[in-house]
Write a structure and sequence with these properties.
Blueprint: E1 17-33, H1 36-48, H2 53-77, E2 81-93, E3 96-110
Antiparallel strand pairs: 1-3, 2-3
Length: 113
Amino acid sequence: MSQTHPLTTTTFELPGYRVVKSFGVVRGIVVRSRSIIGNFGASIQAVFGGNISLYTELCERTREEAFSQMLTHAGQLGANAIVGVRYDATEIAQGITEVLCYGTAVAVEAERS
């Protein structure tokens, strides 16, 4: 199940809210390696083609952890929203990947009608 937060967005505006303070960039970083057992299971799935669910689950879990760390970082700064959310992944060594989730932490208030 994908984790989310109602006041996070990939855009730079939140409809119905106005930014009253910016706290700067926040991030969550997770570095993962593939296990030998996971690689073996995935290679068996690859023989039959289609979605390699072992890797899909690993990627989804890693992204959720990075997202959660980003939310924690923003909360520590006093932010109640994050705009411009992005993900990035980099292989830092063979079989070891860094997943980064980042955005701009902000304080928002509901717009008055």
